[in-house]
Write the structure tokens for this entry.
Amino acid sequence: MSRKPLFVLMTVALVAAPFVAVEVVVRLVAGPVSTLPLFVSPGDQDQNKRDSAIFDGDPLLGWRLKPNLADVWWDYTFFSTNGDRIRYPNDLDDKPAGRLRVVTLGDSVTFGYRVPVSFSKSRARIDAGQIPYPAILERRLRYDGVDAAVIPLAVPGYTSRQGRLWFERAVDDYAPDLVTILYGWNDTDKRPLPDAVTFPDAPWGTLGRRIVAGSAALTKVAVWGRARMTGGEAPPYETWGARVETDDYVANIVAMARRAKEKGAAVVVILPVYRDAVTNRWQAERIGAARRGLAAACEKEGITTLLVPELTEAGHPANERLFGEVIHPNAVGHRLLADRLYPVVRRLLEEASGEARP
């Protein structure tokens, strides 16, 4: 009996040894194995080398930005990330006493897609004055004497579902005083499967995906098996639907706002931006319906909203100068958004503190 634990340990070691050996060989031969194809199906997010260079797979969210990227050039956008995998110049420690922390939740618009825009890989050719609206907001708060950090929890391609799951996981770490929320186009985008199927959030399923992602060998096998089952091709486009239906989109954003308020943060929901109703009429109709549904729900909940008409279909065609294409505001559009957002933020902060700030 005294030797029984030793026998058990030896048995486990013998069983595990082949798996460990395979894992070592795969890592030595294949090098770093991207987990992006493990969680992202064809048609959900590009899987070419360009995206694998800046995204990692995530068992819960599908993908996330890689940490500590330094001046990477991706899809005509120069940007860097910190150790927290966000587009912010500094790593975030515990919030110092007296510092205001604003968290901006969003997708590629809040991330600052093509802001600054650069059609060359030479950083010397970009305009350093072109910055996304969260960075503009931080500068203006600091200029007015407010010790503020405006943190963009924003990843290209994210829907409100991914944003909600991320915020629920991160809200305690970031301890925001104020939260802004802006999602839209990705929710209405057509995909083979809705996000609720593509990114299920059941705890045991997420744990299983984490285990697979932690092994290069299991990742290789899983990606191979997935390609065999699907044939490596997405189903016909005619069968695709919205990634997140309008009712679920509204529910996700309201849930984020409620969660932020539970943590004592003020909230402003920015209604979806979109350039025109001509380029893609179906999508414009979906975004318009989402905007109306969200505005009505926020009014019922007492949640502050911000609508920038120039950044919606109502502003077309004059708003073409504010967009890089139909989805994303350019640097001028970001500056306009910051102009409209800033007084709302100041008002909410003053109401929360009970006194006017300097």
